[in-house]
Each structure stands twice: as C-alpha cells, then as structure tokens.
Amino acid sequence: DSTVAVNITTDTETNASNDEYVYDPEGSGNSWGPGSTMTTHTVTVTEAGTYYFWARVIAPNGGSDSFWLQIGSSPDYLWDLSGGNSWNWQRAKNRGGPNPVTFSLSAGTHTVRVKLREDGTKMDKFVLTNDPNYTPTGLGPSGPDITFTATPTTIPLGNSSTLNWDVINATDCT
Question: What confidence score (pLDDT) does residue 22 get?
C-alpha cells in the first residue's frame, strides 16, 4: 500500500510534528465558499487506486472547525472537523456527503489543496493512503520535512502570497 506523508508549516508549537503547523489566524476571516486562500501541495502516488486523506488537526471551537479540501480535479469537499484543543488525526469527510471522502487517483503527481473555510482551524500534517484500514497515530509516519516561508507572512482574504520551501530528509524531490 502507498502512503504519502507531508509536513506543512507556517507557525510554531512544540506539540506539532516538526514543531510547526499551518492555519489562518483567528479574526483573519472565513470563506463560506471555496476560495483562493489555501495551502497547495504536490504529492506523488506510486499506485493507481482509491485514496483516503487524513490530517493532524486542531479545531478549537465551533467557529474554527472546518476546511475545504480538493485533490486534483475533485470537487471541493466541505470538511467539518471534530472539536478539540489538542492535535488529533481525522479522516476527510464531506458535510452531507461521503464519509469518508475517497479520491480515485492514477499513479503519478497530484495537487492537494486545503482551503480556508473557518479561521483558527489548524493543520499540522497530512497523510494520503490507499489502505482503508490505516489510521495514523501520534505524529504519524515520517516523511520529508517541508518548510514553507510566505512573503508577505500575513495576507488579506482573497489576496496572494509567494511561498518558498526547503525540503529535508527526502530521497527524491521533483
């Protein structure tokens, strides 16, 4: 079974994997429809098949507990998270739709987009797996550490930012 793990970063916390995570700060705004404020990640899967998306998240309250999720040309899924103030793994689902959400992927490269829906919702790491019985635990599987640096570091809703990244512990980077 193929499993792809990616660490994503923009802010720091010692309990996050690699001590860093991504989020939109409280008060930065919400996006009730899928918009352009997002993190974008390229992943490569080695086998065609049905894939499941897991993320290590914090959803601190009822106003900060969802993302939009899209992989490749899939629809944007409204992903409601279970609340809590500590890091936990949750598998992607769709409000009023499939639970869990599955993605039919060909072998090759795909783009993962995690889009702002409610500010304050945090994501530390994600795993894409074709094993329906796999559940990540703790910090999850190790993978390359990818550190993102945004310029500017804070952007108004709907504006853009330039991302630069460093990759450490990777066996291949394309």
Answer: 80
Predicted pLDDT of residue 146: 53
Both structure tokens of 72: 């490749």
Are β-strands 49-59 and 122-129 bridged in parallel, bridged antiparallel, or unpaired?
A: antiparallel
| 68, 77 Cβ separation under 8 angstroms | yes
Do 122 and 23 meet the contact criterion of CB atoms below 8 Å apart? yes
C-alpha distance from residue 13 to each of 44, 78, 107, 108, 127 (Å): 28, 26, 34, 33, 20
**Cβ atoms of residues 149 and 165 within 8 Å:** yes
Cβ atoms 3, 13 nearer than 8 A: no
Cα 47 to Cα 130: distance, rounded to the nearest angstrom = 9
Radius of gyration for the alpha carbons in the chain, expressed in angstroms and rounded: 15
Q: Are 7 and 140 spatial neighbours (Cβ–Cβ below 8 Å)? A: no
| Residue 6 confidence (pLDDT) | 44
> What is d(CA 95, CA 97) in angstroms, rounded to the nearest whole number?
5
- As a whole number of angstroms, the distance between CA 59 and CA 65 comes to 4
